[in-house]
Structure formats: structure tokens, C-alpha cells
Amino acid sequence: MSASLILPLLGAAAPLALAAPQQAAAPDAMVPPVDEQLETPKEANVTVVGHVLQPVQLEPTPERLAGLDLPEGFEISVFATGLKNPRMIAVADDGTVYVTRREIGDVVMLRDEDGDGRADGARVVASRPMMHGIEVDGDEVYLTTVSEVFRTTRNADGTFGPLERIVDDLPAGGQHPNRMVKKGPDGKLYVSVGSTCNACGETDPENATMVTMNTDGSGRTIFASGLRNTIGYGFEPQSGELYGMDHGIDWLGDNVQHEELNHLVQGAKYGWPYVYADGQANPQDYPPGGISMEEWAAQSIEPVGLYTPHAAPMQLAFYTGDAFPQAYRGDAFIAMRGSWNRQPPSGYEVVRIDFENGEPVRFEPFVTGFLVQEDGKWGHLGRLAGMAQGPEGDLYLSDDTGGVVYRISYAGGGEPGERARAQPTGEGEADVRMTGTISKPAALKGPETIASEAVGAEAASLAVSSPAFDQGERIPERFAAEKENISPAIGWAEGPEGTQSYALLLEDPDAPMPKPFVHWVAYNIPAGTTFLPEAVPGQPRLSQPEGVLQGPNSYGSIGYYGPRPPKDDPAHHYHVQVFALDTMLDLPHGASRAQVIEAMEGHILARGDLVGTYRR
Predict the structure, then answer these.
(1) What class is the 56-434 domain?
(2) Domain map of the chain by residue range?
(3) What is the DSSP letter of 220?
(4) Nearest residue to 461 via CA among 490, 412, 436, 494
(5) How far apart are the C-alpha atoms of 371 and 53, rounded to whole Å?
(6) How are strands ordered across the β-sheet holding 490-492?
(7) What is the torsion angle, in degrees rounded to the nearest 10, for the CA atoms of residue 513, residue 516, residue 518 and residue 523?
(8) Which of helix, strand or coil describes residue 451?
(9) pLDDT for residue 452
(10) CATH code for 451-614?
């Protein structure tokens, strides 16, 4: 099935035209890549040639499977069939294989009791609509649906105990409802929450992010943002660092946008939806608040690797076993589900990400041949989804359209890397490369005391007030995070002569961790402004009052985040601190609390503190 899409992108209101089936699209060579056409995103006049090409599903007969290509010494065999929609895989320490089935909404247990290399049937061990992510850590099990995270335990026979729902309010799924969960070396859960769309400004700050939480669902924060849809991710075993493959934006062309390998670090932003790769601009949208593409790119972390566009990376597994040759230990393996909108198709393969000294150095094809041409037409033997390692060192791979789970093992007899095929499926003129490693962003925490005490300098007193609550009184419930989560109106007296700007910090020193918990960072408030109205938008730059910049709170979003102390805690104290400064701070949008405190030193003319309380 193939059709051509010619997409003229004329600003934000570009029409989409589908060429008639018999009409051939313009050759790709005649249309430069988007980044070469784009002189300025605000005046975009870009032609994009894309394709809808869905290879037909072929029966994975023994003859066809014999054509799969693996490195010398490796074998692939069928472990289980008839599973209808096997997606994500987890393997317990005793070798029990668990597979989620999103369309059916359950988890099946697969065991090879007789040792013949095939599962002896499938047993349903849990059921919830849209079940997708799974993590097995010893006898602890964590599962995700679109909006929920569950935990349970494994019984002696491999079945699951009752499911305990620990999260029930993950954001809406939209285009990317496939939540994933991994337990990190710090003992916390890392849950991937995809975007609701191809490219858009999300209204829920948790969409297009990686969130982290305690194993009981408490302490949830945004770990990293600007991630369109990161399904495959894991912790590099040597360094403990988190890496993930993010799905690129559709409809920027056959060879744009690449699938991105990102080094995921706390507090970092990864560009989506406005920039991609090495700061390239997406001409379909523009950042909010008058922020330029260059400014947005400067605040975003570039990927450490780029892979063939539209290959659709799915589950990722770091190899820690001993069954494969030593050269594979510490490498990552990822299932590429395959494109539906590229000519030629890409993906439909297993890719090895070679890590050396804890850092990625190259992509290599590992299992290819699922994508074939028969009688001049593209076909596939499976759309790959799940990837996990068993305790004996074998890899398990799922095909969610053919209902098959495969096992990949090493029988010996070859040198690692020997193979007939040197390029990834569908690579063609598309670039596949590692781009280098990154440094961690500046620390988001600061001194373990509120900012007005941390700065230490003598300053005049500044009266701060709110129409919502008086000094020492309870903050109304509607301003809390679990209610309306809107900022209260805040006002303050005019600063002394020489005041050029104001900065505002809202902090909770009673929080257990981080200490203090930062609820609001706003700075470069113009000298003529002494009042912020209720419900200030969570944007990095405000249009009213014009030019006000906001930074991240401890939850991980930009702007205000309401009180949410642990349940049953005594009332926490929330300090609204306003600083009159003799300068505008030389900081970009999205500056952290620590950066604001450092920049304010030596420039504070006056300061004030309004304290409200809140208890859940």
C-alpha cells in the first residue's frame, strides 16, 4: 500500500494535499531537506514529500524465517505463537517470560517446563484495559496502562497477586498511549509518558516526559521533558546512566526526523516539539511567549545518536548476560517496529547499540530480514515490539502483529560482528550516526534553606501580600496541586529607588526532599509591575506582564506548582519571597532556582516574605 503526500507548510495553517493514487510524487532528490529550505521558521514556506507505505503482512513461514540475517554464531527460534498482540516483555529470575497484550488488555505468562525451547502454553496472570508497560524486579512487578501504574508480587507458581493501583492520574494518551515503566538503580520508578500528538504545545506538563516516583507512587516529579515518545529506555549497567530512543516527528519528509538516542538526565529538555537533532527547527510550530527557535534550542539537549527516520524504536534491553560473546556485554538491543510513512520502509529489525566504556559509539544491525520484497512489493514478517533478556543470557523478541515471541541465542562459531549485511534496513541516503556525549545540565537544587535566608545580604524590607490569604494563614485548597493548581494573586510594595526588576520564589522548607521544595520561580518582572494576577500561565516567558521569565519547580514543570505535602503531614509552610533587584538578571528562560539565587547576589535592594500554610 503506497501513496504520496506533498505537504506545503505555510506557517501554522498549512493545508495538507493527498496526491491521487496514480500521481507520482516528486522525486526526493528534487526536494531538499526541511532544514536546508528553512531560512526563518516564522516565514516558513517549506515543501515536504512524504509517503504512506505500509508493507503487507506476510506469514512467517520456516522458509521465510530462514532468510533472517544475524551475526555469525547467533540463532533465532520461535518461543511462542498464537499470542495475538504480544507487546512488552519482562523475564523473571527463574526464566518465566511475561508479555503484555495492549489490545487484549492483559499479561500472559510463558514457561518452558519441558526444556524443548518453546513455551508450554500461555496463562493470563493480570488484566486491565490497555495494559502495556511491565517491569519485574525480583518478586516485585510493576505494570502500566494509559493512566495507571500498578504494583503486585509474584507467587511461587509465577502468577501475580492482586494488583495494587499506586497511580491513577497519568495524562491522557492521545496519539501515544503506550506507557512504560522501569525501576532505576536509585530504587525509583521511571515512567515514560508520550505526547498526545505528532507535534504540538502540550497543555499537561507531564505529556512528552519521563516522570519518576517512589515505588508506592508517591513523590512523582518530571525527570526530563521534550520527549515525543520514548518507549525504549534503560540504565547503562556500567555507569547507571539512563538512555532512551525517542520517536521522531512525522511528516517532515522521508529522511527527517531521525529517531533519537538521548542521554536522559534530570531536569533536561530535549527539544520537542519545536527543535530536533542538532537544533533544527520544526517549521510547523513556534515556541510560546516570543521565545525564538535559537533560544529554545540553546535550552535543549541534543541527542547522542541519530537513527534512520521512522524506524519506530520500541523496547530496549541492555545486555548483562554471559551467553553472548564478551564484546556484546553492556550493549543495548532495541526492537524497531518499522515505518508506515517512509519510502523505502525502515525498521522491521533488531538494532545493537554498541557501548564502550559506558558510552554509545555506534549503531549496528543485529537481526534483519523481517522486511522483504516479493514480486516487487514490500512485505514484512513481523512488526517488532518487545525486547528483554532472560537469566540464561538469551534475548526475547515479540512481533505484535504475528503473535509470535522469538528467542535469540548464541551457539558459537563466529567472531562478533561478522555478517554479510553492513547497513541498517532502509538506511539508504538517511544518516545513521552517533553525535557525541553530553554534559549534565546545571544542578536544579540549591542551598537547603529558603532563598531569602540563602542570599544572606542585608536589604530593606519589602511588604508582600495576597488577596487569597494573610500572613500565617492557610492557603485556600483550590491553589493546591491536586485541586485547580493555579497560582494565587501576589502583590508587593514598590521597591526602593534604583529597582530595575523583581524576582519571586515560592518554597516549602518543610518538605522532606528536595529541601526546600521549589513551587515557583519567576524573574525579570519589570520594575513597574508590583502585582501578579491569579492563575499565571506555566510558560517560560509571559506575554503579560511582558517579558517575565519562569523557571522549573521541583516537580519539573515550568511556572507554578501548588502545595502537595505528604498526606498526614503537619501543615507545611510556604514562603512567597519577592526580591527587588538593581538589574535585570542575565539569564535565559527556564533558569533554575540555583541560577536565579546566584545571579541575584549583590543586586538585592529589598526583600519580603509572605508565609502561608497548607495541610492535606
Answers:
(1) mainly beta
(2) 56-434, 451-614
(3) -
(4) 494
(5) 13
(6) 464-465, 490-492, 531-532
(7) -150
(8) helix
(9) 78
(10) 3.90.280.10
